[in-house]
Amino acid sequence: MTNSTPSAINRRLALTGLLALPLSACETMDIGALEGILGSGVLSQAEAARGIRAALDNGILSALGIVGRVGGFFDDSQIHIPLPKVLNDVQSVLSKVGAGGVLSELETQLNRGAEKAAPVAKDIFFDAIAGLSISDAIGIVRGPQNAATNYLQEKTTPRLTALFSPIMENALGQTGALRLLDQVTGDLRNIPFAPQLGADARSDLIGHGVKYGLDGVFHYVAAEEAAIRRDPAKRTSEILRRVFGSV
Asked: Helix or strand or coil: residue 73?
């Protein structure tokens, strides 16, 4: 009977665990590269997953701290939320009758809504991060500067959109954005030949705010991830130093 060292046994068990994963979880993985990572003793499956989750947790907290304050969206040219195109198109019409200012105020309150909504959604983001699989995490560790953020965005945006939408709707109601939209709709009805907003104007505005709100959060999650990968000082926990120090 052939003797095996404990490290060799652990290595075989780790690879066996990977091979036992569903094919869909492994489609984008380079098994040879994973064998090299695990065999070198540099990084284990569990550490890879914990490190990526910790990086994303830190990124979410940092991002929400940036965007979830007054001016977090409105004053930031990188993530400022513009009005939907259909509302920009009626700006000149309303300006002619002295009602153009309401759209400027609507844009302000749309951004205020995103600033209110984003921090409330913290647990939604954390739940999505907790669902990150070990196999995906291992591949992300060796990916580009925003690999973890891209993964989270691609895999969770539909679910996050559905969960984030009522939060955004409530925030837009609190800031007065929906009331202003109703005012714009009424003003347009009283102007002959003016373009009309559709019956779905409210849901369109909410969807617009959700899309840009999530994009703004992920923008800063990506910035935090890149900083953790680049700057050892940003690795504020042992697991972050263990995982990203090996890359």
From this structure: coil
Domain count along the chain:
1
pTM score, two decimals? Answer: 0.75
Task: Return the closest-CA partner of residue 111 out of 201, 172, 169.
Answer: 172
The answer to whether 74 and 111 are in contact (CB under 8 A) is yes
- The pLDDT of residue 88 is 72
- pLDDT of 193 higher than 80: no
8 A C-beta contact, residue 106 and residue 130: no
- Distance, in Å, from the CA atom of 239 to the CA atom of 101, rounded to the nearest integer, reads 51
Task: Identify whether 18 is part of a domain.
Answer: no
Contact 189, 196 (CB under 8 A): yes
Greater model confidence, 86 or 126: 126
Per-chain mean pLDDT for the chain: 77
* Total residues found in the chain within this entry: 247
Does residue 185 form part of some domain?
yes
Q: What is the pLDDT of residues 5-37, one digit of tens each?
A: 444 434 433 433 333 333 333 333 343 444 344
CA–CA distance from 16 to each of 31, 35, 55, 107, 131 (Å)? 11, 11, 27, 54, 21
110 occurs within a structural domain: yes
Residue 221 sits at the vertex; the CA angle it makes with 217 and 224, to the nearest 5 degrees, is 145
Domain that holds residue 54: 43-244
Report d(CA 161, CA 138) in Å as an integer. Answer: 26
What was the pLDDT predicted at 31? Answer: 38
Q: How many other C-beta atoms can be found within 10 angstroms of the C-beta atom of residue 70?
A: 11
Distance of CA 210 to the CA centre of its chain: 11
CB atoms within 10 A of CB 201: 19
Q: Is residue 107 part of a domain?
A: yes
